[in-house]
Amino acid sequence: MEYIRVIYPENRDVYIDNSIVGSTKEMFMIDSGRYSFHLGSPHNYEPDFVSVDVKDTAPLEPLLITFNPR
After folding, report:
1. Mean pLDDT in residue range 37-41
2. Whose CA is closest to 56, among 7, 1, 16?
3. Which residues, 6 or more positions from 50, have their beta carbon under 8 angstroms from its beta carbon?
4. Which domain holds residue 28?
């Protein structure tokens, strides 16, 4: 399993490959692979999405994906 944290200043829904999986306050466990992440509507954040290969993570060293307000 791989570990992901999505960072944004406020609580937002998190989408992985266009499916909602939880919120920015959670850690996600997913299989290794290439995924696209976004925060849904409204699109008042940047980048619009992040597409990344997820591998070699650990519970104490998750992959951090950061979105910023526009």
Report:
1. 98
2. 1
3. 36, 37, 38, 65, 67
4. 2-69
